[in-house]
Amino acid sequence: MNDLEARRPSVAGQFYAGSPETLREQIRECFESKLGPGLPPEEHGDEGKVVGVVVPHAGYAYSGPVAAWSYRALYEDRRPQTFILLGPNHHGMGSGVSIYPKGAWMTPLGTAVIDEELSAWIVEETKIIDPDIRAHQYEHSIEVQIPFLQYLYGDIRFVAISMMLQDLGSAREVGREIGRVLEAGDGKAAVIASTDFSHYVSPEVAHENDHAVIERIVAMDSPGIYKVVEDRGVSMCGYGPVMAAIEATKALGAKAGRLLKYGTSGDVAPMREVVGYASIAFERA
User: Fold this and answer.
1) What's 68's domain CATH number?
2) What confidence tens digit (pLDDT) does each residue in 154-174 have?
3) CA 136 from centre of chain
4) Which domain holds residue 58?
5) Whose CA is closest to 89, among 197, 163, 158?
6) Domain count, the chain
7) What is the pLDDT of residues 256-269, one digit of tens each?
């Protein structure tokens, strides 16, 4: 595969349904689930208060209803011109922070186009982000967000950034440099941080540890997030993208985060060890 080819989906038929009709129905069921927020309105809003969100990235059967809360909040708020998708690198491929530079990504719902101009601008203006498709080839954390966006908005443009480096310094540098680029542009992007929270711990431990992290996220406190994750040993896979999103959305005027929904895989099916999920919005005052 080279960077001129459309990226084919890596987890269609696994994390989410592989046919267009079934996938649309699956996403609709995520909104209508007892854990979901209900179906979004027919028309998107035009408020401009929500500048970023945190969303989970497990299989839709488990995390989809929680993810639907962030997507409904964003849709009710506005239609962004482009989406900055930040996700962790689970496979250890590619450079430390990798942007997918050009082309398009395919899903069962169609083709989503890379915002090549903005991606190139980010690479030109930053020191830590490299154009590199290897990190994205098999990675699911960004891919699973795209069908939700296509379901709501139809054709979309996006920037895909995969983070293997998740230390505090790197995450803050990534976020601040992205924020500087977005602030210098029209500022009409939305930043989406993809993460799951605790992995394979008891429901009690998941709730306690995850809410300790979430408290720092809604305070938009990147150092606090890193300290809680490190001190408690929280097995959160995308704390780097979340910290980067906080720094980027601050540049776009975000003043606070708001927890929309928390849940675990144990809310879907009884299990002794669960994975935690949360939807959080970063909002202007």
Assistant:
1) 3.40.830.10
2) 999 999 999 999 999 999 999
3) 14
4) 20-284
5) 163
6) 1
7) 999 999 999 999 99
